[in-house]
């Protein structure tokens, strides 16, 4: 965490920042792979499932996402020369020996991401009946691994992605559209790697670990349809480029093959293993809080909705804890995960976690003994270089200016001027948003 000294300064803020660091470290894919994957002779064990490597002529690695580089490095550490080759796409590269780690961009797909994903799919097309395809999947994969379907350009994908991100649509809705504009998503990679055996290791950034939503489900069945993708665009008033509108219309009329659903035989040889998720981060926060003498409470790993509204609820809970000791007594740490959204009405700079933090700071104004941190665990909140922010009762002295920043979706400059932005750089993981409230006793001391 950059400039940690400026961000702290009180016991509550320091503990909140320590909790955030612990949560991000818990989502470390190297740690998750070390705990979930082992090799004993020819026997590869993932969770409770074993695979006999002697049964396969090749072990090939595919995939990507924010954690793709670290996952590639970690799986090489387990399998070494047993890996024949591989391609992983990420925005946080790592040094590897047998797996090509290629570049992509997040949160808006890029041309280099298209080229990298094309290389991966070409490799997947070579999979045979005796190929073991290990697929490394993590959050951010939807943008990092674009593979426009036939007739769709990257610029068309970028346009509709930006419109969906600005609309306040939830990630499942966004991905319903992405899947039906892609040759990779919505089970597309599993289809391309058939008839090989496909085994996915997944670091989840999705509420409830819905396999079809994490990185748009490249190895998972897709229950959404072309018709539903059309409805998402209509619901948010988005007029897509003609190529996308045409594809969705033709798909809805049965002229384009649907993404594979759970009944598709391609999934007979597919296993998906979630090895880390948002709850992993929350458990780490809970454990650290307890070690530091605070009562911990995991509020929820599934918080969603408009960021500034969710912030008010979190502050209300902190106030209740401090004032009445309900639902637990101070000193306490309340944490939550999930993914909030922002409906853009202005044209400023910021992200969901920064808006969450500033909205909370307005509510906390003048209140002692409460500090809040809110970050995206991949280190990128919105399209900024900040992961999120830390605030307390002294962060806002000019509420009207703060409210104006929220109204214009321009919270980044406001928080930057007050040394509140948390900058981690790319963390090499992504287990969704993480929020921590530290609540001192009613006198404000710890």
UniProtKB/TrEMBL annotation:
GO terms for cellular component: cytoplasm. SUPFAM superfamilies: GckA/TtuD-like. Transmembrane segments: none annotated. It comes from the Archaea. InterPro entries: GK-like_C_sf (IPR037035), GK_N_sf (IPR038614), MOFRL (IPR007835), MOFRL_assoc_dom (IPR025286), MOFRL_protein (IPR039760). Residues 333-433 form the MOFRL domain. Residues 16-248 form the MOFRL-associated domain. One of its GO terms (molecular function) is glycerate kinase activity. Keywords: Pyruvate. This is Hydroxypyruvate reductase. It comes from Halalkalicoccus jeotgali (strain DSM 18796 / CECT 7217 / JCM 14584 / KCTC 4019 / B3).
């Amino acid at each position: 965490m950059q400039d940690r000294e400026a961000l702290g300064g009180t016991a509550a803020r320091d503990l909140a920042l320590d909790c955030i660091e612990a949560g991000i470290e818990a989502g470390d894919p190297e740690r998750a792979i070390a705990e979930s994957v082992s090799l004993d002779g020819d026997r590869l064990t993932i969770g409770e499932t074993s695979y006999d490597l002697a049964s396969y002529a090749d072990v090939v690695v595919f995939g990507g996402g924010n954690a793709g580089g670290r996952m590639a490095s970690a799986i090489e550490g387990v399998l070494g020369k047993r890996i024949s080759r591989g391609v992983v796409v990420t925005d946080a590269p790592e040094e590897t020996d047998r797996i090509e780690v290629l570049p992509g961009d997040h949160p808006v797909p890029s041309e280099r991401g298209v080229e990298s994903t094309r290389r991966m799919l070409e490799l997947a097309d070579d999979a045979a009946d005796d190929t073991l395809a290990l697929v490394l999947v993590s959050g951010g994969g939807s943008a990092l691994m674009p593979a426009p379907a036939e007739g769709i350009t990257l610029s068309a994908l970028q346009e509709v992605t930006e419109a969906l991100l600005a609309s306040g649509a939830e990630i499942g809705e966004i991905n319903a559209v992405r899947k039906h504009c892609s040759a990779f998503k919505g089970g597309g990679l599993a289809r391309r790697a058939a008839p090989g055996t496909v085994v996915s290791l997944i670091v989840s950034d999705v509420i409830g670990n819905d396999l079809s939503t994490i990185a748009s489900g490249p190895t998972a069945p897709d229950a959404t349809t072309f018709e539903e993708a059309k409805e998402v665009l209509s619901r948010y008033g988005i007029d897509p480029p003609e190529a996308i509108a045409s594809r969705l219309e033709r798909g809805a009329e049965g002229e384009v093959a649907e993404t594979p659903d759970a009944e598709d035989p391609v999934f007979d040889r597919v296993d998906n293993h979630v090895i880390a998720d948002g709850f992993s981060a929350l458990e780490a926060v809970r454990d650290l809080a307890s070690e530091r003498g605070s009562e911990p409470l995991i509020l929820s790993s599934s918080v969603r909705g408009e960021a500034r509204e969710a912030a008010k609820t979190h502050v209300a809970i902190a106030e209740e804890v401090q004032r009445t000791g309900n639902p637990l007594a101070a000193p306490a740490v309340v944490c939550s995960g999930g993914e909030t959204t922002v409906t853009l009405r202005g044209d400023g700079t910021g992200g969901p976690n920064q808006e969450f933090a500033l909205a909370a700071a307005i509510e906390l104004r003048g209140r002692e003994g409460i500090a809040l941190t809110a970050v995206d665990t991949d280190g990128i909140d919105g399209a900024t270089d900040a992961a999120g922010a830390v605030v307390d009762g002294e962060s806002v002295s000019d509420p009207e200016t703060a409210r104006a920043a929220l109204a214009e979706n321009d919270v980044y400059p406001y928080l930057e001027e007050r040394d509140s932005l948390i900058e981690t750089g790319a963390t090499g993981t992504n287990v969704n948003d993480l929020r921590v409230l530290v609540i001192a006793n009613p006198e404000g001391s710890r």
